[in-house]
Specification:
This protein is α+β, with helices and mostly antiparallel strands. The chain is 15% helix and 52% strand. The protein contains two helices and 14 strands. The strands form three sheets. Strands 5-4-8-2-1-10-13-12 form an eight-stranded mixed beta sheet, with no helix packed on it. The chain has a three-stranded antiparallel beta sheet with strand order 3-7-6. The chain is globular, with a radius of gyration of 18 Å.
Length: 198
Amino acid sequence: MVLSAMKKNLSIFLIPLLFASSASCQSVSFYKETLLMKLDASHVTVTGEYCFRNNYGVEANQTIFFPLPLTTGELKLDSVSVFDETEQTYIRHIRKLPAGLFFQLTFHGQEQKKLRIYYVMDHDGRNVRYLVMTHVQYWKKPLSQGTYTLQVEDPSITIDSTSYKPDNVLSENTRTTHTWRKVNFNPDKELDIWFHHK
């Protein structure tokens, strides 16, 4: 039984590594990310736009990895959707592994694609995390451009600190907006946000 559990745990870690090694030798690159997180008393709602480019003139099939905490009960799995804005269609064939989502995309020569990924997660009332480091490291090169926005409209929530210093904090009526803008971004930590209720 112990050996079986060890094999299972090993496979959890090896599968993302195998996909990661293939990402570095593919012709497709991940170059831009725009993220909006809306934090309320119970949940964080995340909408992200992710831009990819085929750098060569021939067709390419690419495995796309998106890290999500699928091993926890916090993620509302029925909320997860992946929409191909280029093709104007939802992506249905998605593998849900402990490390996150995996799916295949076909790129024509020199083609660019934009995906929109949406999900809702519960939080513990103290912290939310976006796995930006895990995602960028999968592609083996810095992210050319990243914009990350946190919106809080609940006046009972106070942001205590963040793992990256925001470039801008704007308060307007009951909404507070934190914005991070990154260029040639090679993150050395995840994006953590710590907060409390008044």
